[in-house]
Specification:
The protein has 431 residues and is mostly helical. 85% of the residues lie in helices and 0% in strands.
């Protein structure tokens, strides 16, 4: 396929050494035929001529056959040549079907997944990881989040969350969340954390102005529901500065900081009681669920709430950036503590590893069962993506030497066959 392959418009397959060996055998057979031709009348000259001619025919025939797989020999559009490029779509489809349906069968993939010692891999990996590794990984991920998740990206994520919340009923999810919070004692820490975060956020002018706008909106809606007399009194109180939104904001900030500092604050006890009974009410009281849904819709459509969420997200991002930049980051330490605790549990608890092993394998097998039908299509598309020229190059790169040895063998076997046939002819003549 060396000289003929180039004549056919493509590069030769195989390494230069094997190409030269195949071409050398063909040239040697032709030279033998030429040198033996003047002595063809003798028995030995005829034998050498037969060997040389048969070697040339065998070598050329195999060159034609190998070249016809990839391109038109000598560039001539001979029928049934350039087989791979001409039948590329069919070849890709058959490769996908063969691999998906006969090689990577559901049974085979399931058995191979079952043989994997996932529990041992988890234990070995957990033993190699150190606390310092976990801290470095956590810090790297946190820095990446702070750097890469821009304000625009945060806004897009919040918009998607709003759309998701608008589509899903809030009451059942809120009930499950409250149950989980109570079982782990998160609601107490959450109250303190939210009170601290909102109290500190009220020091920023933008957040403070947004909160004041919300208070104005609440007061306005409250005044609309009041009778004429109380509405007049509330208007006068507002006129003389008795009801002032800035004063309300300051009182709110002071109250929030007291809640954050005092674990025995009455508001915390009230929140704990409300959290204890609220999940069952959310699941069983249709009127409460409807009110929650209405509040959700109103909050999602409120520009003031949207600004408040944006301000809170910016504040969290700024606080996270400042914390991660410090050497003794609280976020990094908190996440690393949990990861290190999980690492030690994996190493020490064989039952936990076995449960994780069984769970992971079950999920993977479910995916195999569900999506195995797409495997043939996936492989077919991957093969088709190579394109005919890419497939030709790939096969020539990986099987080029073997194809050249086919040419070499054709020359040698052809010469031997020609010599054997001539020997039989001589034997018949002698007999």
């Amino acid at each position: 396929m060396s000289s003929g392959g180039r004549a056919g418009g493509g590069r030769a397959a195989g390494s230069p050494r094997v190409q030269g060996l195949a071409l050398g055998a063909l040239v040697a057979a032709a030279a033998l035929a030429v040198l033996a031709f003047p002595f063809r009348a003798t028995w030995w000259g005829g034998l050498l001529l037969a060997i040389g001619e048969a070697g040339v025919v065998g070598g050329l025939a195999d060159w034609f056959a190998v070249t016809a797989l990839f391109r038109h020999p000598l560039g001539l559009p001979i029928p049934h040549t350039a087989i791979i490029p001409a039948n590329w779509e069919l070849l890709a489809r058959r490769v996908g079907t063969m691999v998906g349906d006969r090689v990577l069968t559901k049974t085979y993939v399931t058995e191979e997944i079952g043989r994997i010692d996932l529990a041992g891999l988890l234990a070995a990996g957990a033993q190699r990881v150190t606390r310092a590794d976990l801290e470095a990984l956590t810090r790297t991920i946190a820095r990446w989040l702070v750097t890469e998740v821009s304000t625009g990206t945060t806004g897009e994520l919040l918009a998607r969350m709003r759309r998701l919340l608008a589509e899903q009923p809030l009451a059942p999810a809120l009930a499950d969340l409250l149950d989980a919070a109570r079982s782990h004692g998160w609601h107490e820490r959450m109250v303190a954390g939210v009170a601290t975060a909102v109290g500190d956020a009220l020091d920023r002018p933008a957040f403070r102005a947004t909160t004041a706008d919300i208070i104005d909106g609440v007061l306005a809606r409250y005044r609309e529901t009041m009778a004429t007399g109380p509405r007049l009194l509330l208007g006068l109180a507002h006129l003389f500065g008795v009801v002032d939104r800035d004063r309300i904001v300051r009182a709110l900030q002071t109250g929030l900081r007291e809640v954050a500092k005092d674990p025995a604050h009455p508001l915390r006890a009230q929140v704990a009681e409300a959290v204890a009974e609220l999940p069952s009410r959310l699941r069983t009281d249709p009127k409460l669920a409807a009110r929650v849904e209405a509040l959700k819709v109103e909050a999602l459509e409120s520009p003031a709430i949207a600004r408040l969420v944006d301000d809170a997200a910016a504040a969290v991002r700024q606080a996270l950036a400042a914390d991660v930049a410090s050497a003794d980051s609280e976020v990094v330490g908190w996440v690393s503590d949990r990861l290190d605790r999980a690492r030690h549990a994996l190493v020490a608890d064989s039952a936990l590893r076995a449960e994780l092993d069984a769970w992971a394998k079950a999920r993977v097998i479910e995916l195999v069962e569900r999506h195995h039908g797409r495997l043939a299509v996936f492989i077919e598309n991957g093969v088709r993506a190579l394109g005919p020229e890419g497939a030709v190059r790939l096969i020539e790169e990986h099987a080029g030497d073997d194809l050249q040895y086919i040419r070499l063998n054709g020359t040698v076997v052809g010469g031997l066959a020609g010599g054997a046939m001539y020997s039989v002819h001589l034997l018949i003549r002698l007999l």
